[in-house]
Fold each of these.
Amino acid sequence: MRNRFLAPKTEEFKKQPGYPSEERMSKGMVAVIECEQEIPCNPCETSCPNNAIIVGDNITDLPELFGEKCVGCGLCVAKCPGQAIFMIDMTYSDKTALVGFPYEYLPMPQKDQEVEAVNRNGEILGKGIVRKIQNSRTMDKTNVIYVEVIKEIGEEVRSIARK
Ligand code: SF4
Ligand code: SF4
């Protein structure tokens, strides 16, 4: 039985319809949906300008990602009330990946600041560098922070340690 205090592992999320295929992941920035609960919710679907996320008529279904339609804009990350969507670019450089996630704490990190990257359970995985911060009216003032980390932890990093 899974420890209810620990988040599911990457391998478990990969079995869900919201996780992009390895082929799509190898092509650049893409949304990664880690929605756990089958609850009535679909802002991910309605916020995507490219119809890349479908919940469908049964609003409690888990969202499905159509990775080939995703252009990596990050809009759905800010619109998800469950903070269950992330952005990953495994092609950022030869050795690094870029991971985007919602961040609503203060103080906000600055661009090019070194930070500690953490996993789904808040455990520190290593250093990262903030490369981009998205925040616009279309994102409901939710910040989406993008952190460069080594590729090996790209699919595990989901936030940064708070100061
Ligand atoms: S990142 Fe942009 S294009 Fe991709 S699923 Fe989210 S809203 Fe749609
Ligand atoms: S908006 Fe977020 S919490 Fe709601 S169904 Fe979509 S991914 Fe899940």
Note: The mean pLDDT is 94.
Amino acid sequence: MSNSSFTNVTVAGGTGALGFNIAEALLNDGSFTVKVLRRMPETPNDKADLLASKGAEIVYADYNQHDHLVKALNGTDALISVVSPGRTGSYDFDALQTPLLDAAKAAGVKRFIPSEFGIDYKVGDHPINDTKASFREKVVNSGLEYTIILCGLFAEYLGVLYDIKNKTAKFYADGSTELAVIALSDIGKYTAESLKLEESRNATIRVAGSRLSLNEILEKFEEATGSKWEVVVDKEVKHRFQNKIDPVPSPMDLYISVVLERASFENIDNDKFSFSPRPLVDVINVLVQMASI
Ligand SMILES: NC(=O)c1ccc[n+]([C@@H]2O[C@H](COP(=O)([O-])OP(=O)(O)OC[C@H]3O[C@@H](n4cnc5c(N)ncnc54)[C@H](OP(=O)(O)O)[C@@H]3O)[C@@H](O)[C@H]2O)c1
């Protein structure tokens, strides 16, 4: 592990679910000056306030105005994009991030980390991932250094498969299907430390908190709740979605079923990093506690 040649790091989307954890990990590391890039207009945001109280500079830009973005990125060595258009109903990661990449080039940014943070998707799997793939190609060909960080499923989001309140698990694949799962705080730490890692230059880095089957994760939920769960297996999601067969799955059901096909990594890079990730059971216990409030 070398010292980072990236002192000034900007996190675009640092107020988001993952972006906050990445910005916080950079600040906790102590070797970086951290800027959080937000969209104009300025809006109150608790996470931005918290990051500012820990030393981050909060900057605003209009993503549609190249000069605005370039000005906001001036002095940045590494730009970590953790933006997501999801909450607006659009899932075009390419359209959202292209202005950022163009501005990064103009501002002399050395390394770009795109908003990936998911699975080993293949082109054609799903339109959302196709927009990530087309943007990834732009990043790889941009002339900037890059790191693609893949981390499997966010552990805090396991509720999409495991319904704690109703003690029901919905699997879109065989129970033996293995998943890479990771806590948000660990993705933050891996991302921050990747900036100090020789092997992350122009590379894909795969990290995971644990790699367990759907059934093994179910056992952990059963232990944490002290009860036996019901399991519903639905493997026909893609077929029903494509052929509009009742009950027609929602686009989110389809997306989750696609994620499950690709959410396991053969090789992971955890041993290149200086720390061990949190055990999954820690996050599961927190989820169970939260569900009982
Ligand atoms: N592996 C997994 O299980 C998993 C799960 C969820 C997400 N992800 C991935 O993780 C990444 C981050 O997702 P997230 O859920 O953390 O994101 P998020 O919380 O939905 O949003 C992140 C930030 O993006 C900015 N943003 C939102 N809409 C925007 C727009 N239209 N234009 C520009 N900026 C916009 C906002 O920041 P400001 O308002 O401050 O500008 C927001 O706080 C994405 O790549 C996503 O696909 C992976």
Note: DSSP finds ten helices and 13 strands in the chain.
